[in-house]
Amino acid sequence: MFLRVGKRLVVAGWVVLQVSCATMSPEECKLARWNEVGQRDGLRGAPLSVLGDRLEDCAKVNVVVDTQAYSQGRDLGLQSYCRIENAVPLGLSGGSYAGVCPPAIDVVFQQRYQVAHAVYALRNEVKNLDDRTESLERQLRDINRSEDERLRGAGSDAERSKIHKDIDSQRQNIRNELAETDRRLHRRRDDLRNAEFDLSNLR
């Protein structure tokens, strides 16, 4: 197997950095050490377009970005980010890959990332379908419990007949959705097993 989840993840706090915002405040612009800013962006795999955001933010407060220092720092950060062993943890965490690695590593990195990200996406889908199944089963139990109460409150045979009809319709709709959800769940579980098998076979 290529690696266990989380093994040798070299960038501390990677998942947090992946979702961090590129926006800089006026105070951050004034105090920025651009080599360090670039290195942080490189460590989180930020695309070079983020530099444009930095330039725009800091221009508003008349701060000139040292693009050379930024680029040098970003290149240094990318050296840690663009390691083959980081591709799988990135994919399994749900992080995004912006194609920032050098051509010599990009193809392999992206292939491993995509295999791992497929596992991440399918695990989420299976969980959501499991949750939906539980929710539908609860609705079905609630309808069954409420049927007697509604019937006891009915004042005529016609009203009771209408209650039966309404509840039967609701019950059937839920059962239909349960059946469809169950079919989708079985398919996605099969897909997940295949995806996890592909992941385990990465070399």
Provide a descriptive summary of the structure in words.
- It is a single chain.
- This protein is mainly α and 203 residues long.
- Helices cover 74% and strands 0% of the residues.
- Helix 6 packs parallel to helix 7.
- The protein folds into two domains: 14-100, no CATH class; 119-200.
- The chain has helices spanning 14-18, 26-31, 34-43, 49-59, 67-81, 84-92, 103-152, 157-200.
In short:
The protein has 203 residues and is an all-alpha fold. It has helices at residues 14-18, 26-31, 34-43, 49-59, 67-81, 84-92, 103-152, 157-200. The chain folds into two domains: 14-100, no CATH class; 119-200.
Largest sheet: none
Q: How many domains in all?
A: 2
Record field, number of beta strands? 0
Order of secondary-structure elements: HHHHHHHH
Shape: elongated
Structural classification: mainly alpha
